[in-house]
Amino acid sequence: MDYEAIVVIVERGKANGVIKKVSEAGAIGATIAYGRGSGEQTFSFFRSLKVESSKEIILIISPCDTLDALYEIVVDAAKVREQGKGIAFTVPIGRLTGIRSMEGDADAAAAGAVGQVRRDPMAMLPFCGYNMGDYWAHWIEMGKVLGDKAPKIFNVNWFRTNEQGKFIWPGFGDNMRVLDWIIERAEDNADAVETPIGYEPKPEDINIDGLEDSGITLDVVKDLLNVDKALWKEDAANVKEFYAKFGDRLPQKMKDQLAALEERLQ
Question: What is the pLDDT of residues 142-162, one digit of tens each?
Fold first, then answer.
Protein backbone atom coordinates (compact mmCIF):
# COMPACT_ATOMS: atom_id res chain seq x y z
CA MET A 1 0.00 0.00 0.00
CA ASP A 2 1.26 3.49 -0.87
CA TYR A 3 1.05 6.44 1.51
CA GLU A 4 1.38 10.20 1.48
CA ALA A 5 1.85 12.65 4.31
CA ILE A 6 -0.53 15.54 4.88
CA VAL A 7 1.20 18.49 6.53
CA VAL A 8 -0.85 21.33 7.98
CA ILE A 9 0.49 24.48 9.62
CA VAL A 10 -2.00 26.49 11.65
CA GLU A 11 -2.06 29.06 14.43
CA ARG A 12 -1.23 27.72 17.86
CA GLY A 13 -4.32 26.35 19.56
CA LYS A 14 -6.09 25.34 16.33
CA ALA A 15 -4.57 21.90 15.81
CA ASN A 16 -6.82 20.00 18.21
CA GLY A 17 -9.90 21.03 16.24
CA VAL A 18 -8.33 19.70 13.05
CA ILE A 19 -7.34 16.45 14.75
CA LYS A 20 -10.90 15.99 16.00
CA LYS A 21 -12.30 16.29 12.49
CA VAL A 22 -9.83 13.89 10.89
CA SER A 23 -10.37 11.39 13.72
CA GLU A 24 -14.11 11.50 13.12
CA ALA A 25 -13.36 10.80 9.47
CA GLY A 26 -11.52 7.61 10.43
CA ALA A 27 -7.88 8.74 10.40
CA ILE A 28 -5.90 6.51 12.74
CA GLY A 29 -3.51 9.06 14.15
CA ALA A 30 -1.78 12.38 13.78
CA THR A 31 1.19 14.13 15.31
CA ILE A 32 1.29 17.75 16.46
CA ALA A 33 4.58 19.61 16.64
CA TYR A 34 5.26 23.20 17.67
CA GLY A 35 7.38 25.75 15.88
CA ARG A 36 10.35 26.75 18.00
CA GLY A 37 12.79 29.38 16.89
CA SER A 38 15.51 31.81 17.89
CA GLY A 39 16.65 35.08 16.43
CA GLU A 40 13.85 35.87 13.99
CA GLN A 41 11.65 33.33 15.84
CA THR A 42 11.44 31.08 12.78
CA PHE A 43 12.95 27.80 11.74
CA SER A 44 13.16 25.78 8.54
CA PHE A 45 10.68 22.90 8.55
CA PHE A 46 10.46 21.75 4.93
CA ARG A 47 13.05 22.96 2.43
CA SER A 48 12.78 26.75 2.31
CA LEU A 49 9.49 26.96 4.22
CA LYS A 50 9.81 29.04 7.40
CA VAL A 51 7.53 28.39 10.37
CA GLU A 52 6.96 30.90 13.15
CA SER A 53 7.23 29.68 16.73
CA SER A 54 3.56 30.50 17.30
CA LYS A 55 2.43 27.80 14.86
CA GLU A 56 1.32 24.20 15.25
CA ILE A 57 2.37 21.63 12.67
CA ILE A 58 0.14 18.61 12.09
CA LEU A 59 1.49 15.49 10.37
CA ILE A 60 -0.98 12.88 9.15
CA ILE A 61 -0.07 9.67 7.31
CA SER A 62 -2.76 8.54 4.87
CA PRO A 63 -3.13 5.70 2.35
CA CYS A 64 -3.17 7.19 -1.15
CA ASP A 65 -6.61 5.77 -1.93
CA THR A 66 -8.20 7.87 0.85
CA LEU A 67 -5.88 10.86 0.60
CA ASP A 68 -8.10 13.19 -1.45
CA ALA A 69 -11.12 12.87 0.81
CA LEU A 70 -9.04 13.24 3.98
CA TYR A 71 -7.15 16.21 2.57
CA GLU A 72 -10.39 18.06 1.87
CA ILE A 73 -11.55 17.43 5.44
CA VAL A 74 -8.22 18.76 6.73
CA VAL A 75 -8.37 21.87 4.55
CA ASP A 76 -11.94 22.65 5.62
CA ALA A 77 -11.23 22.01 9.31
CA ALA A 78 -8.09 24.15 9.30
CA LYS A 79 -9.79 26.90 7.23
CA VAL A 80 -6.55 27.33 5.30
CA ARG A 81 -8.44 28.62 2.26
CA GLU A 82 -8.94 31.81 4.26
CA GLN A 83 -6.13 34.35 4.02
CA GLY A 84 -3.62 34.07 6.83
CA LYS A 85 -5.14 30.96 8.42
CA GLY A 86 -2.28 28.66 7.54
CA ILE A 87 -1.23 26.25 4.82
CA ALA A 88 -1.70 22.58 3.96
CA PHE A 89 0.20 20.38 1.53
CA THR A 90 0.97 16.74 0.83
CA VAL A 91 4.34 15.02 0.60
CA PRO A 92 4.95 11.69 -1.18
CA ILE A 93 6.44 9.02 1.07
CA GLY A 94 9.21 6.89 -0.37
CA ARG A 95 9.95 4.65 2.59
CA LEU A 96 7.75 3.93 5.58
CA THR A 97 8.36 1.70 8.57
CA GLY A 98 6.10 0.74 11.47
CA ILE A 99 2.67 1.24 9.94
CA ARG A 100 1.88 -2.28 8.84
CA SER A 101 -1.27 -2.27 10.95
CA MET A 102 -3.11 -0.24 8.33
CA GLU A 103 -2.61 -3.07 5.86
CA GLY A 104 -4.45 -5.55 8.06
CA ASP A 105 -1.32 -7.13 9.53
CA ALA A 106 -2.04 -8.99 12.76
CA ASP A 107 0.78 -7.07 14.45
CA ALA A 108 -1.71 -4.37 15.39
CA ALA A 109 -5.32 -3.44 14.80
CA ALA A 110 -5.36 0.33 14.69
CA ALA A 111 -8.08 1.06 12.15
CA GLY A 112 -11.62 0.98 13.46
CA ALA A 113 -15.02 2.42 12.69
CA VAL A 114 -16.02 5.69 14.32
CA GLY A 115 -17.95 5.01 17.53
CA GLN A 116 -16.28 1.69 18.21
CA VAL A 117 -13.71 1.14 20.94
CA ARG A 118 -10.20 1.39 19.50
CA ARG A 119 -7.69 -0.37 21.69
CA ASP A 120 -4.97 2.03 20.71
CA PRO A 121 -3.91 4.34 23.57
CA MET A 122 -2.62 7.68 22.29
CA ALA A 123 -3.05 6.37 18.70
CA MET A 124 0.39 4.82 18.89
CA LEU A 125 -0.18 1.48 17.13
CA PRO A 126 0.77 2.79 13.67
CA PHE A 127 4.13 3.90 15.07
CA CYS A 128 5.05 0.62 16.76
CA GLY A 129 7.88 -1.00 14.86
CA TYR A 130 7.24 -4.67 15.68
CA ASN A 131 4.59 -7.09 16.90
CA MET A 132 2.59 -5.70 19.82
CA GLY A 133 2.67 -9.10 21.50
CA ASP A 134 6.41 -8.71 21.79
CA TYR A 135 6.00 -5.17 23.13
CA TRP A 136 3.72 -6.50 25.87
CA ALA A 137 6.14 -9.30 26.70
CA HIS A 138 8.92 -6.72 27.07
CA TRP A 139 6.78 -4.54 29.33
CA ILE A 140 5.91 -7.51 31.55
CA GLU A 141 9.58 -8.43 31.79
CA MET A 142 10.41 -4.82 32.65
CA GLY A 143 7.95 -5.01 35.53
CA LYS A 144 9.76 -8.06 36.89
CA VAL A 145 13.11 -6.28 36.67
CA LEU A 146 11.82 -3.15 38.43
CA GLY A 147 10.15 -5.12 41.22
CA ASP A 148 8.92 -2.85 43.99
CA LYS A 149 10.41 0.14 42.16
CA ALA A 150 7.88 -0.18 39.34
CA PRO A 151 5.47 2.78 39.08
CA LYS A 152 1.93 2.28 40.32
CA ILE A 153 -0.64 2.39 37.51
CA PHE A 154 -4.13 3.87 37.79
CA ASN A 155 -6.91 3.83 35.23
CA VAL A 156 -9.33 6.76 35.01
CA ASN A 157 -12.40 7.30 32.83
CA TRP A 158 -13.25 11.00 32.85
CA PHE A 159 -15.96 10.58 30.22
CA ARG A 160 -18.88 8.83 31.89
CA THR A 161 -22.13 10.36 30.65
CA ASN A 162 -25.63 10.69 32.07
CA GLU A 163 -28.92 9.79 30.40
CA GLN A 164 -28.83 13.06 28.49
CA GLY A 165 -25.41 12.25 27.06
CA LYS A 166 -23.70 14.96 29.14
CA PHE A 167 -20.39 14.36 30.90
CA ILE A 168 -21.01 13.76 34.61
CA TRP A 169 -17.58 14.72 35.96
CA PRO A 170 -16.74 18.42 35.38
CA GLY A 171 -13.17 17.64 34.29
CA PHE A 172 -10.40 20.20 33.69
CA GLY A 173 -8.97 21.48 36.98
CA ASP A 174 -11.35 19.34 39.02
CA ASN A 175 -9.48 16.27 37.81
CA MET A 176 -6.91 17.21 40.44
CA ARG A 177 -9.38 15.99 43.05
CA VAL A 178 -8.97 12.46 41.73
CA LEU A 179 -5.24 12.86 41.19
CA ASP A 180 -4.96 13.94 44.83
CA TRP A 181 -6.43 10.58 45.89
CA ILE A 182 -4.10 8.76 43.49
CA ILE A 183 -1.07 10.41 45.08
CA GLU A 184 -2.30 9.54 48.56
CA ARG A 185 -2.93 5.95 47.48
CA ALA A 186 0.49 5.66 45.83
CA GLU A 187 2.05 6.79 49.10
CA ASP A 188 -0.05 4.27 51.09
CA ASN A 189 -1.99 7.04 52.81
CA ALA A 190 -5.44 6.21 51.39
CA ASP A 191 -7.69 3.18 51.70
CA ALA A 192 -9.39 1.54 48.72
CA VAL A 193 -12.30 -0.76 48.01
CA GLU A 194 -11.62 -4.03 46.21
CA THR A 195 -13.91 -4.57 43.19
CA PRO A 196 -13.98 -7.10 40.33
CA ILE A 197 -11.95 -4.67 38.18
CA GLY A 198 -9.43 -3.62 40.80
CA TYR A 199 -9.14 -1.23 43.73
CA GLU A 200 -11.26 1.91 43.72
CA PRO A 201 -11.48 4.93 46.04
CA LYS A 202 -14.04 5.06 48.78
CA PRO A 203 -16.59 7.61 47.49
CA GLU A 204 -16.19 9.77 50.58
CA ASP A 205 -12.43 9.99 50.01
CA ILE A 206 -12.87 12.03 46.80
CA ASN A 207 -12.90 15.72 47.71
CA ILE A 208 -16.05 17.24 46.17
CA ASP A 209 -16.14 20.44 48.22
CA GLY A 210 -17.45 23.28 46.08
CA LEU A 211 -18.84 21.07 43.31
CA GLU A 212 -22.48 21.47 44.31
CA ASP A 213 -23.15 23.82 41.39
CA SER A 214 -21.83 21.15 39.05
CA GLY A 215 -24.29 18.64 40.46
CA ILE A 216 -21.60 16.47 42.02
CA THR A 217 -22.80 14.89 45.25
CA LEU A 218 -21.64 11.85 47.22
CA ASP A 219 -24.37 9.78 45.53
CA VAL A 220 -23.10 10.88 42.10
CA VAL A 221 -19.56 9.83 43.04
CA LYS A 222 -20.91 6.45 44.20
CA ASP A 223 -22.61 6.04 40.84
CA LEU A 224 -19.44 6.99 38.98
CA LEU A 225 -17.53 4.31 40.90
CA ASN A 226 -20.20 1.65 40.42
CA VAL A 227 -19.00 -1.43 38.51
CA ASP A 228 -21.57 -2.48 35.91
CA LYS A 229 -20.77 -6.17 35.58
CA ALA A 230 -22.83 -6.61 32.42
CA LEU A 231 -20.89 -3.88 30.61
CA TRP A 232 -17.57 -5.21 31.86
CA LYS A 233 -18.44 -8.73 30.71
CA GLU A 234 -19.19 -7.34 27.27
CA ASP A 235 -15.90 -5.46 27.27
CA ALA A 236 -13.99 -8.55 28.40
CA ALA A 237 -15.46 -10.47 25.46
CA ASN A 238 -14.30 -7.71 23.11
CA VAL A 239 -10.82 -7.80 24.65
CA LYS A 240 -10.65 -11.57 24.10
CA GLU A 241 -11.56 -11.06 20.45
CA PHE A 242 -8.88 -8.37 20.16
CA TYR A 243 -6.26 -10.58 21.82
CA ALA A 244 -6.97 -13.34 19.31
CA LYS A 245 -5.41 -11.16 16.60
CA PHE A 246 -1.99 -11.71 18.17
CA GLY A 247 -2.11 -15.50 18.22
CA ASP A 248 0.75 -17.23 20.03
CA ARG A 249 2.62 -13.92 20.36
CA LEU A 250 0.22 -12.84 23.11
CA PRO A 251 1.91 -13.28 26.51
CA GLN A 252 0.33 -15.98 28.68
CA LYS A 253 0.29 -13.50 31.56
CA MET A 254 -2.24 -11.35 29.68
CA LYS A 255 -4.44 -14.36 28.92
CA ASP A 256 -4.36 -15.30 32.61
CA GLN A 257 -5.27 -11.77 33.70
CA LEU A 258 -8.24 -11.65 31.33
CA ALA A 259 -9.45 -15.06 32.51
CA ALA A 260 -9.18 -13.91 36.13
CA LEU A 261 -11.20 -10.77 35.30
CA GLU A 262 -13.92 -12.84 33.67
CA GLU A 263 -14.08 -15.08 36.75
CA ARG A 264 -14.38 -12.09 39.11
CA LEU A 265 -17.24 -10.70 37.02
CA GLN A 266 -19.35 -13.84 37.47
Answer: 999 999 899 999 999 888 888
